[in-house]
Amino acid sequence: MITIDGVAKTYDGRRVLGPVSLDVADGARVALVGPSGCGKSTLLRVILGLVKPDEGRVLLGGEPVGDATKRAVRRRAGYVVQDGGLFPHLTAAGNLAVVARFLGWSDERIEKRTDELARMTGIDRAMLARWPAQLSGGQRQRVGVMRALFLDPDVVLMDEPLGALDPVTRRRLQKELAELFATLGKTVVLVTHDVPEAARLADEAVVLRDGKVVQRGTIAAMAKDPADDFVAELLSAGDA
Amino acid sequence: MTRAAALLAAFAVLLASMLAGGTAGAREKVVVGSKAFPESWILGEAMTALAASAGASAEHRANLGGTEIVAQALRAGAVDAYPEYTGTLKEVVARAPDATQEELRAALAREGMGVTDSLGFDDSYGLAIPAATSDRFGIHSISDAALHRELRAVFSHEFLGRADGWPGLRARYDLDFAEVRGVEHHLAFAALARGDADLVDVYTTDPDIERLGLRVLDDDRGFFPRYDAVIVYRLDLPARAPAVFAAITRLVGRVDRATMTRANAAVASGRSTHDAAAELLAAALGASAPRGIPAGPSTTSMVLASLVRHLELVVAAVLACIVVGVPLGVLAGRRPRLATLVLGATGVLQTIPSLALLALLIPLLGIGVVPAAVALFLYGLLPIVQGTCTGLTGIPASLAESAEALGLSSWAKLRRIELPLASPSILAGIQTSAVIAVGTATLAALVGAGGLGDPILQGITLRSPRLILAGAVPAAALALVVQGLFAWLERLFVPAGLRVRTHAE
Fold first, then answer.
1. Which of B401, B416, B503 lies nearest to residue A81, judging by beta carbons?
2. Three-class DSSP category at B86
3. B498:A88 CB<8 A
4. N or C, which end of chain B is more exposed by having fewer CB within 10 Å?
5. A31: which strand partners?
6. Are B405 and A74 a contacting pair at CB < 8 A?
7. How far apart are CA B43 and CA B34, in angstroms?
8. Which chain A residues contact residue B409 at CB under 8 A?
9. What is the C-alpha to C-alpha distance for residues A240 and B368, in angstroms, rounded to an integer?
């Protein structure tokens, strides 16, 4: 589904990413993990064309991501950021439908899709009439995920989606999202610095350090056989 | 969008009606100008009455701000004739203080301006002392005064500063008074009346000369340039409207110093310029003076009309600012390098003194509503450009990225997400622009555009606090109304979600 081929990015003479090559199979759930500044968020942005790589290329569903194609690519990928990234001037329902409206969906069709997603995520329809400022952190995050799923994309990309939540809500959402993605069978790429979260939401993880891939595999396999001390330390810190 | 479209339509209608108002009228129209002091105003009123008596549709644009503005208005064809003084013409218009009458005439002709012979009086600088002092010490000329060092002189600040005032006079006569103080002009007369001063500078048609029993000293060494009153007119006027030209120039040689001084005194004592002009015409032209000069409007209707015009100017200027400023702000918000340029340019516009800007616009746009609205537009641009630019660049990075990641077109992203998010900042910019316009529009009267500056300027000219307040109070009230209006507009235009502050956990 996603092919990353020799991608590199340099800011102000400092190499922050790559060269990185990575394949994410259709329906795979992959977590990008590593400490702050390891390049995991930049890599996620490169996939969406939000950051233009200096070298290499990205294919999404077989199509190269470039200036001409990035808008079409973005509509095939849902993007979720920390705290949901909801637009405060639109109600929760308005946030869900913002692209659908632009694409000319009928009210009926939007209504139907909203109902579908509300059932899927177990969200109360009445709550969707509220403004983002009137929602709790967990509710905002659920709406953020619903928005990402609205156009039924092939891929969902998430950047520290649960980073701003309290531990209890966070655990609950991790469980809900894991079930949701398992049911939907979407390809998921998740950025997190929290190893247990990666283990709960993804089938496998990619450990990044200084912009490069250090190791890839399931968390359990990597914990048993770490590539180096850095991976060992990262995974054990996550266990604590 | 429908609201924006409605506003645009309203703007178009307003502008069209203002332009139509400015150019309507098939009849031969003659515009008389005058400057912002009573004598000019009285003469302008008299010239207007004469033009009307010759069958023209005559209009008096009174209180135009300063020689440069009236002269520019005349060159640009917005004014056909106005009362002026030879000394001022030589100094300000021809820029040759020592020019002879013929040289002046030739210099003016090169600019398409004609000048009549003297109306019969001169309004020059002079020195005056109380008649009693003059008699007691035998002081009749400035040379006599030079022999009395003990005289206490009180001069206006302008007289003390001008080359053709005190510095030149002192050198010419070798004057050396023990005491020379600078004060406000009418305070000098108060000081003289109390006996705190002996010598003041005067205009020779100043009504206070008669009121206080002063004597103007003979300028026996011919220092003061003559400020003969004349009429300046467009050279095309005699051919275009011969009857009007003939009527106006009937004043030439007919207004003596006593007549003018009496008219000035009438206005100083609180009578209307309209009455003073009627009396001046009767004294100057006798039985052949035009009768039934149309009276000016009452103060109430004048203030009301001024208020309406003020609003028209402000609304037209602010709407134009929005139409131009918001797109400029969007452009500046997208391209940081362009932002520096756009904000710099609109910022520089704001620093141009308003009077200078108006004077610069007159050759291009004439006088009246158009240059005033354009000036207000130029002043109001910066806050809106800045508000829009700040609002867009101030969108939190996570929201900007979420918007970008949606895959909307740039226009859809701007309209559906960025502009609504920036709307509080844009509206704040528009509010600032509107408040600036309400205040600055009082200066529109200086170029004959009307507005609440009209009663204020007239009040200053006539020293009438009542008139000044009649303009200033509605202007201040209008600024408050604008504040209130924007509280309401905020509810209308800023999405409700941006105003929600409660957090239901």
1. B401
2. helix
3. yes
4. N
5. A190, A205
6. yes
7. 8
8. 71, 102
9. 79
